Amino acid sequence: MISLRTLIKLVIACLIVGAMLSFIGADPLDFWRGLWSALRDAVQRVFDEGLSGALRILNLIALGAVIVLPLWGLREVLRRRRPPAAPGPHDRSPDQPRDPSPR
């Protein structure tokens, strides 16, 4: 289940990216129609042209990777930079003896 905090972050990110894309005249329906059309055409080309259609699909994957992979990598780098949470007093395993030293 997605948390409310994550949902709010996603909405804010979508708003910012949407504003930038709107600035250059992009429309979400045109984007999805164009994407569907490109995928449909690429699949049709595979059947019509053989190898060149397959290369077109690989080209689409590479084009998408230009955007997706850097964003994913940045997310992973930022996730790994976050320090791990300090263990609490109840985070020991049941077979681990209690620490007798006072804190």
UniProtKB/TrEMBL annotation:
Keywords: Membrane, Transmembrane, Transmembrane helix. The chain crosses the membrane at residues 50-72. This is Integrase. Residues 89-103 have a biased composition (Basic and acidic residues). Residues 82-103 are annotated as: Disordered. The keyword Membrane applies. It comes from Parvularcula bermudensis (strain ATCC BAA-594 / HTCC2503 / KCTC 12087).
